[in-house]
Inverse folding.
C-alpha cells in the first residue's frame, strides 16, 4: 500500500524530497525505494520521519478500502505496522501471525532482496506489537498449506 501511496498520492514525493533530499531519488525524479529503505531502516529517527508522513495516509487508504468492501463477511488487514499505524483501533479482532527470523529471511529472499537489505529490513523496522490486544496467535513455522488451515480455523472461531 505504501508504494501505491508514494506513486499515486499528489504531494507525497514532494514531501519525501523535502524530508530526505534528492539522494533517495534517481535523476532527481523517480523515488528509489531501495535508497529510501536503506536510509530509514538504518536510522530510527529517519524511520520516524517517514512514519509521520505515511501513517496517516495509510490509515486513510485502509479506511477507503474497508468502506468499499463493507458488505464482505470479513476484511483482513495485513499490516506489520498495525499498532504503530493505529490500525488496531478499527479492528474487531487481531490475529498475530508469528514466525522466526529464518523464515522471515526466506520470505524476503523470495522477494529477491539481497542479504544485506534483508538484514537491514528485519533489524530496522522496529515493529511494536501490543500483545494485550492480540486475540489469536498463529505460528507460521511450516508450510503455506498448514498456515492456511490455521487461518481458516481462527476465522471459524470468529
Amino acid at each position: 500500500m505504501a508504494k501505491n501511496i508514494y506513486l499515486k498520492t499528489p504531494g507525497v514525493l514532494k514531501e519525501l524530497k523535502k524530508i530526505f533530499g534528492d539522494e533517495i531519488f534517481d535523476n532527481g525524479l523517480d523515488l528509489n525505494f531501495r535508497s529510501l529503505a536503506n536510509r530509514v531502516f538504518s536510522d530510527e529517527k529517519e524511520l520516524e520521519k517517514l512514519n509521520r508522513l505515511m501513517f496517516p495516509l495509510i490509515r486513510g487508504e485502509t479506511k477507503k478500502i474497508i468502506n468499499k468492501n463493507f458488505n464482505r463477511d470479513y476484511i483482513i488487514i495485513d499490516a506489520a505496522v498495525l499498532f504503530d499505524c493505529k490500525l488496531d483501533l478499527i479492528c474487531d479482532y487481531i490475529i498475530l501471525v508469528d514466525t522466526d527470523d529464518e523464515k522471515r529471511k526466506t520470505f524476503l529472499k523470495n522477494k529477491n532482496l539481497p542479504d544485506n537489505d534483508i538484514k537491514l529490513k528485519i533489524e530496522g523496522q522496529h515493529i511494536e506489537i501490543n500483545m494485550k490486544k492480540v486475540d489469536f496467535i498463529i505460528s507460521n513455522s511450516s508450510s503455506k498449506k498448514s498456515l492456511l488451515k490455521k487461518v481458516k480455523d481462527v476465522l471459524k472461531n470468529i
Summary: The radius of gyration is 17 Å.
